[in-house]
Structures are given as C-alpha cells and as structure tokens.
Amino acid sequence: MASTPSRPILIPVLGDQLTPTIASIRDRAKDDTVILMMEVWDEATYVRHHKQKIALIFSAMRHFAAELRDAGWKVDYVELNDPDNSGSFTGELFRAVERHDPRAVHVVEAGEWRVQQAIFEWPDKFDMPVEILPDDRFICSIAEFRDWAEGRDHLTMEYFYREMRRKTGLLMDGEKPAGGKWNYDAQNRKPPAGDMVPPERPLFEADAITRQVIALVADKFGDHFGTLEKFRWPVNREEAEKAADAFFAERLGRFGPYQDAMVHDEDQLYHSLLSTSLNCGLLDPLDLCRRAEQAYRDGDAPLNSVEGFIRQIIGWREYIRGFYWTMMPGLQTANALDATRPLPEFYWTGETDMRCLADCVRSTRDNAHAHHIQRLMVLGNFALLAGLRPEEVQDWYLVVYADAYEWVELPNVSAMILYADGGKLATKPYAASGNYINKMSDYCGQCTYSPNKKTGEGACPFNPLYWHFMARHRDKLESNHRIGRIYATWDRMGEAKQHEYLESAEAFLATLEPATSGWAREE
Ligand code: FAD
Ligand code: DLZ
Ligand code: SF4
C-alpha cells in the first residue's frame, strides 16, 4: 500500500457499515484518510452463521471496497485468507496502526453490543485518539429512544411509530396522518388467495467476486448450516437498487393485504426482501420510505400497503434497534417464562411431520430467509408454546438468516416471540393454535396432522401445545387484560377435557429430539 504523506486518519468500516455517506467517511478528505476493512475469523464464527450470510457479507464488503477505491479512497482491505490475519477487529486494528501510523482512529458505533464493547476498549489500547461516531443511518438515535422509553412500563411500538411519522413527515398531511388513520393493519390480514401469482424477485447472478467468495465459504465454512446453491442476494448498491425498484414496481401494491399470508414453497410472496441490503448499508431506510410514499401520492400503490411498509421500517425496525440498546445486556439472558426445553433437532434438519415447520426450515436452509410471519407465527410460535430455552432459540435465529445481526434478531426473538422480557415489548405473548396457521396459509391441507383435531392421535400439535402453554403460565398471564379472558374458556372446558389437552401436549413434547450440539457454536 502506498504511504500517505502526513499521518492519516484511520477509519475501520465494519461489514454492516457499507454506506459511502456513513458518518466516519462523509466529511473526510481522501488524501488524509485510510479506510480499513477486515474479514475476520471471529466475526464469521462467533456463531456458525448460515453459509449465505458469510458469503453475502464478504462479497458486499469486497464490492464496497472496490466502490470506494473507484471513488478515489485509499482502502486497506484484509482478506480472511491473509496469512497474517489475526482473526479479530482489534488485532487487525493493531496491525493497521503499524502499517499506517495514523494520528487518530474514527469509527462509527457498532451495530452489535459485543463489537461495541471491544471498540470501547480501543482508546485504552491504542495510544491515540479514538473517535466513536453515532450511526446516523438510523432515524432515531439511541439517546432519543432512551428518552422516549424513560418512565414507560410498556414500550408500545405504535406510539413510538407515530413519533417517527411526525419526525420524518412521512405520510403526514400537516398534523394529521394521511387518510385520517395512523394504521391500516385491519386491511392487511388477508389469507392467501387461490389465484395469487407473486412475481419472481430479481435474482442476481454471481460475478467473479461473489464466485470467489462462495468458493472461500464452501472451503472454510462448509459444515455451517444452509446451502449456497440458491445464493442470489444483491451484493452491491446497484443490485440492491434494482431489487428495490422491482419491489416498488411489482409488489408494493399487494404487500399490505398479503403481509401475513403463507404459501407452501413460496418464499417471498409480496415481501420486499430488502432487509439484507438495508442491514449491511446498501440501501437507506428513509429513502425507501420516501419512495413508498411517492408511490401512494402518485396513485401507484394503496395507502394500506404503503403505510404497512413504512411502519415496518420507521416503526418496527427503528423501535427494535432502540429497544436492543436500551435493554442490553440483560436481554441476552432474559427468561421471564423460565423456559428450559432444548431446541429440537428439526430446527436444523427440517425433519418433522409438521408441514408448516418443515417448509419454514426448508426456506431458511435454502435461502437464508423466511418471511416475517413464518419467523413469528410458525417457528416462533412453536418455540414459545414448547417452552424452548431462549439462548438456544436466539442462537438459531442469529445463525440462520442472512439479515440477522444481534441488534435486530435479539429483540425479535427474546421479546417478541418468547416473551422472555416479561412483556415490555409485546403486550401479550404471540401464542396461537393451529387454527391461525390454517387460516393464514395453505400448509394444513396436506399435513399429516389436522388443525381441526384438538387432541390425541393426528391432532395438530399447536392445539394442545397452546393450552399447555396457557395452563402452565396462568400465574403470569391471567392478570393481563389482553389474554386473561382465555382462562374463562379453559375453566369452562372441565377437568376431563383439560386433562386431554395437557396429556396430548406432554405426549407430543416427549417425542422431540433435542438438537445435537455444535450447530450454532463451536463446541
Ligand atoms: P418486509 O416484509 O418486506 O418488510 C420490510 C422491512 O421492514 C424489512 O426489510 C425490515 O427491514 C423491516 N422489518 C419488518 N419487520 C421487522 C421487525 N420485526 N424488526 C425489524 N425490522 C423489521 N429482521 C432482520 O432484519 N434481521 C433479523 O435478524 C430478524 N430476525 C427476526 C426474528 C424473528 C423471530 C422475527 C419475528 C422477525 C425477525 N426479523 C428480522 C424481522 C422480519 O422478519 C424481517 O425483517 C423480514 O422478514 C425481512 O424480509 P423482508 O425484507 O422481505 O421484509
Ligand atoms: C456478519 C459478519 C461476518 C460474518 N463477517 C464479518 C467480517 O469478517 N468483517 C466485518 O467487518 N464484518 C463481518 N460481519 C458483520 C459484523 O458482524 C457486523 O458488522 C458487526 O457485528 C456489527 O457490530
Ligand atoms: Fe402446521 Fe398444524 Fe397445519 Fe400441520 S396442521 S401444517 S402442524 S398448523
């Protein structure tokens, strides 16, 4: 690497900071700056990520380095196979400091707690100023979220979302929400329609960089979960923009109504599949929301779809990130429902007669993706009802999805699906029987089990599991006004029926094979 005349500023850019306007870079002079990018073993293996996730990050990082170099930046890029690679961000920063003799380090705060703790140690470890800048790609800063959360018992997303609508002006007509309502969810719960033919999402062919990375991943991480064959994620800004264009042109219109629908072998429906690009910095959240709003203002997309999409991004996505930084590190070990059952092996193999779960695991394995309602109401609902141990479920979700970073995965898993935070995020557990999945999907028709059978041989396991869950957590849930009424139904059933449910659930739970160790973390 050519030496820089005066001592430069050294700027580490992490794998989810692939944005040319990120705070550490945007005001810097090119001739006075070295950008450091590092493929490191620690990040690739702190959990044993899905192969597609590693391939996506490495390919996107390498494309970003090329984009920066084309724009005239000096980039020092350390590949995983570099024989001197120390394997960690801090180790690589040490080596880079020796190479470049910088006068200071500037870095944008990390997305994940684990990495941020390491960054906090840098000022003591390096004999130079280390400036840690806020990640202003998010609309709500961590401090702003904490202020909002201060003194509230329940952190109701809907109220936070309204603040974000006011702050951004998105879908606002003056002081009022567009169309007169903040939320059009009531129109957004359609089951799949028989004639639904969702357009194919753009699939991006691997270029030379991606092919090289895929070979590297197959070689080094071949025993990690998941397949590489269907790797088609956008890996640079141009591809990510094309993916967004296709979503706005072809799917946004039906995004809202079919947001909760599930169809066997259909992995995308009308979802955007933009989370992988958003989370590593290839797309800008606010820009996407403005484009969605424009589609509504131009009469190209209905308000319920556009509002639904914007709520996912400036509502849920921002809220989840604020929640993470407000609740860490306790969230990692939270277990308000004292759940202790090991994760079943079928989460890794897909080998179960429960057709809904088998299909969600298949999509997860083949695409490193499953859509929201599959994650929440099938995989998540099962984990909640069966009382799976939060730390194992958290690890699973962190491993298997290409869009998974702890800041977004952990609140969704711990607080949203498992109620492990004791109800700060969700006002009640998202518990459902087979009836919900039957209504919202085409899974049940060809399943070994019947959603209409409540107990015994052939009954959908979600049915007895639902009541088993409710019965075993009565002390914690009965006083919750959103769920307490359920217990009147339970009491009316009478002892014999209750016994049937409980026995049926116990019999099913006894059949679950615990996962063999080593899938999620090195032994
Ligand atoms: P769309 O349905 O098109 O939604 C648009 C965008 O809204 C998404 O790209 C995403 O950025 C945002 N969004 C929607 N819901 C959420 C949410 N609950 N939290 C945060 N952002 C949201 N999303 C991740 O990005 N990474 C994760 O690791 C992750 N783990 C999850 C785990 C569980 C248990 C659950 C229930 C949800 C999880 N989600 C996660 C949220 C959501 O499932 C994904 O963002 C979504 O499926 C990504 O697909 P998409 O881009 O097609 O989303
Ligand atoms: C997910 C991931 C992986 C697999 N590998 C790397 C890497 O080698 N180098 C890197 O900079 N980032 C990687 N990432 C993304 C990081 O885990 C992510 O940027 C931080 O955890 C955010 O705090
Ligand atoms: Fe899933 Fe039950 Fe339907 Fe089978 S019957 S697909 S297990 S919800």
Strand count, sense and closure of the main sheet? 5 strands, parallel
The count of DSSP E runs of length 2 or more, i.e. the number of strands, is 7
Strand content: 5-15%
Regions with little confidence, pLDDT below 50 for 5+ residues: none
Mean pLDDT: 96
Radius of gyration: 24 Å
Q: What small molecules are bound in this structure?
A: flavin-adenine dinucleotide, ligand DLZ, iron/sulfur cluster
Outline the structure in words:
- This protein is mainly alpha-helical and 523 residues long.
- It is 47% helix and 5% strand.
- It has helices at residues 41-45, 51-70, 89-100, 113-120, 122-125, 142-149, 157-168, 208-220, 237-250, 252-255, 275-280, 285-297, 303-327, 346-349, 355-367, 372-386, 390-400, 406-417, 434-440, 462-472, 474-477, 486-493, 495-510, and strands at 9-12, 33-38, 75-78, 104-108, 130-133, 172-173, 176-177.
- The strands form two sheets. It has a five-stranded parallel β-sheet with strand order 3-2-1-4-5, with helices on both faces.
- Strand 6 and strand 7 form a beta hairpin.
- Helix 13 packs across helix 18 (406-417).
- The two termini are 39 Å apart.
- The structure holds flavin-adenine dinucleotide (FAD), ligand DLZ and iron/sulfur cluster.
- Iron/sulfur cluster binds next to helix 15 and helix 19.
- Ligand DLZ binds at residues 14-16, 38-40, 43-44, 49, 54, 57, 110-112, 115.
